[in-house]
Amino acid sequence: MIHRWSIARRLFVANLLIVVSFIAVVGTAAYVDARDRTYSEAGLRMTGIATAIASNPLVLQAAGTQDPSSVLQPYALDVMEAAHVDFITIMAPDRTRWTHPRNEELGRPYIGSIDAALRGETFTEVTSGTLGPSVRTIVPVKDDAGTVRALVAAGVTVGTVDVAFAARLPALAAIGLALLLGGSLASWLLGRYLRRVTRGWGPEQLSQLFAYYESVLHSVREGLILIDTRGRVVMYNDQAAELLGLAQSSGGDPTRPPSLSDLPLDRELRSLFESGRTAKDEIVLSGSRVLVVNQGPAAGPEPFGPRGRTPVYGTVATLRDRTEIEALGNELETMRTLSDALRAQTHEHANRLHTMVSLLELGRTQEALDFATKDLELSQQLTDDMVGSVDEPVLGALVIGKAAEAHERGVHLDVAALGSGTSPGIAVQDLVTILGNLLDNAIDAAADAPPPRRVELTVESDEEGLDIAVHDSGAGIDPATADQLFRHGFSTKPGGPGGRGIGLALVRQAVQRLGGRLTINGRRGAKFEVFLPATASPGAPAQEHRSAPRPAAGNDAAGKGA
Questions:
Q1: DSSP annotation string for 384-419
Q2: What is the pLDDT of residues 135-162, one digit of tens each?
Q3: Which of 292, 317, 460, 512 has the fewest CB atoms lying closer than 10 Å?
Q4: Domains assigned to the chain
Q5: CA distances from 122 to 75, 80, 97, 142, 146 (A)
Q6: What is the pTM of this model?
Q7: CB contact set of 3 (below 8 Å; sequence gap of 6+)
Q8: At how many degrees (to 10) do helices 69-83 and 7-54 cross?
Q9: Which positions fall inside the Histidine kinase domain (predicted)?
């Protein structure tokens, strides 16, 4: 049954037992001490009374007479009544009583020890006499020569002493009761606090619950990281360690969790964690990954505290890897571009076909033939130029689609390729990400600029790697925004961050993942130059260089991705 008790109840019972035991021990000690003190005080009082009587010259004078009792008995009775003692016995050195509360005891021998008094010493003892057990003090009466001529015994019965001791018991009982009530109240308050903190769970239940949470924490496929209000990482699971490049969580010292500044996190992700703000499906670039972050406060399930506030223990963040989804999205965007290009070409081909049909209906056969031949030569030349420039079919299709899109927007796309246009060790998906986003930004920038609107694409491959250069005739790079151009979420285009601010960030991430170098040149428009080594070294930091960016009066080359 005790296993079902909560921590609060167990602590209350344990503390109550400790308090009761403490009161029992202390009460017993106080009882014995009070009893001893009562007897000691009675002995001291009897010593004072007996000494005062022995010092009275009347006693020494009466001791030398034939009938001491006739003088000393009335005196002793008066002192007994005034001093509130049970008996005063004045006796001869041979124990013969000269005084006694009972007249019939006069002349009889004294019952008790007198050896020390005969030696001239004062002593106190507890012994039984004619009146029962009593506390008595015996003092010698000496003459001028120091000879013991008489003995004085003053005492009170044990019953009288116990009555005096019993008067102290209510105070001891009150102290014990106060300790019991105070300890019980402290235990109840502490138990109430623990009941709220532990939600009424017992230690075995908490241990089992922690084991379940630990298993769930490390078995879920999403990364989970717990951060307290001081910016310290309380716990993270295996998936979070993999996504963030952290060491596997081994428990460590729970009293000294690492802070966010001690972990190798990207600046953007660290800023999000440190802010503690609520985030829902927020995309963050971390190293070579695209992460979807959800973050919220770690609060208690119910109000708690003296003011009924819900406690906030920190933040809980979940991480999902979206890198592959983003790559698929880029490929889908490429296919959409090609589809739009084919749709535009179909529309344009229909217009030209109607023109040729009209010329034939008008009987202008030669003019229709010349028009068809010239249109075929232009279309074939565009296809031959694209296919001949880039050997990789996926990149060739991407460039053809971008060329058609640029043509629709009044931008002329020039393509020049030296080599195959690819390099060993570089995935075509990464090339699509880099080239597609750079061309989108360049076309946007050129379309917003005055004529002539041109975009130049140069792809050169050799044994060292692949060089890509995209140069547009746009307004150029604004020096004020050059440092933020590759930051996720930053965009110079209208429409805010929704759907923008990720293109150039993905370019930088892909270049970083491939161990390449990214250069921005702002002369005569914007020129982005990318070098990707033939043997990619994932994880090597990308190098970004900017050379003399020319101030821009309007939009820069950030485009859709910036």
A1: HHHHHH--SHHHHHHHHHHHHHHHHTT-EEEEEEES
A2: 888 999 988 888 888 999 998 887 776 6
A3: 460
A4: 7-163 (3.30.450.20), 221-303+310-321 (3.30.450.20), 388-537 (3.30.565.10)
A5: 22, 20, 18, 12, 14
A6: 0.45
A7: 202, 204
A8: 150
A9: 431-536
